[in-house]
Amino acid sequence: MFLQRAATQCLRKAGPCAALRPFAALQSSTQRFFAAAALSRQSAFQQALESNTRWASETAQSDSKFFPTSAQGQSPAILWIGCSDSRVPETTVLGLKPGDVFTHRNIANIVSPTDLSLLSVVEFSVAHLKVKHIVVCGHSKCGGVAGCLANGKLGGSLDIWLQPLRALREKHDAELKGMEVDGQRAFMSAANVRQGVEVMKRIPTVIDAMKERGLQVHGLVYDLASGKLEDVDCDEKDDVAALREAAFERK
């Protein structure tokens, strides 16, 4: 009560606006915070544009034919199916240049036989660009993999999109139970890649190219901690390949 009376007396002496000053200060601080955040976002975008200008200039100086040649068309040898994660840019990871890799990326590098966007990319790159290799690449510390291992909903379209990964988790439930969290994530990343390779090999366009001109399909996992790509064993027996060709081959 003493503190309350003292505070009331102080406010009376200070005038009617004194009680509002802390709120005004808070509002001002909040406005400064959001203004700084907006400036930071704009700054990041501006920095990206400036970086592009430097890159274009340096690239043109080091190879005067690069951009004129690039403008004439593309003939990539690799189709890369990867995760949308910002830490796994395929051209940088492979040490290659623009024009070397045709790319499709999505959350958790899921290869679905009903994904029209993916199928369009495969059709164009295999049938028209004649790529020689298809790479399905996952990575460590994948948020999509972590999400499928969690028992809660992620919300919105993410739960629908990750259904193939959750089904894969159910399939390997007995194996996953005996692992630590990091082990589970590594296991699921590799299993997801294998499943992606299997689905890819059942696409008629891919089957034809494998049979007619030796197109190869590979599985890889990128390790964020080391920056290195690790091969995922996706080998299959000859009779399995023959049965798949017979079942999915276009007549």
UniProtKB/TrEMBL annotation:
PANTHER family: CARBONIC ANHYDRASE. Its cofactor is Zn(2+). Reversible hydration of carbon dioxide. Binds 1 zinc ion per subunit. It catalyses: hydrogencarbonate + H(+) = CO2 + H2O. Zn(2+) binds at C83, D85, H139, C142. Belongs to the beta-class carbonic anhydrase family. It comes from Friedmanniomyces endolithicus. This is Carbonic anhydrase. The keyword Lyase applies. Pfam families: Pro_CA. SUPFAM superfamilies: beta-carbonic anhydrase, cab. Its EC number is 4.2.1.1. GO terms for cellular component: cytoplasm. Keywords: Lyase, Metal-binding, Zinc. GO terms for biological process: cellular response to carbon dioxide; cellular response to oxidative stress. GO terms for molecular function: carbonate dehydratase activity; zinc ion binding. Transmembrane segments: none annotated. It is an enzyme of class 4 (lyase). InterPro entries: Carbonic_anhydrase, Carbonic_anhydrase_sf.
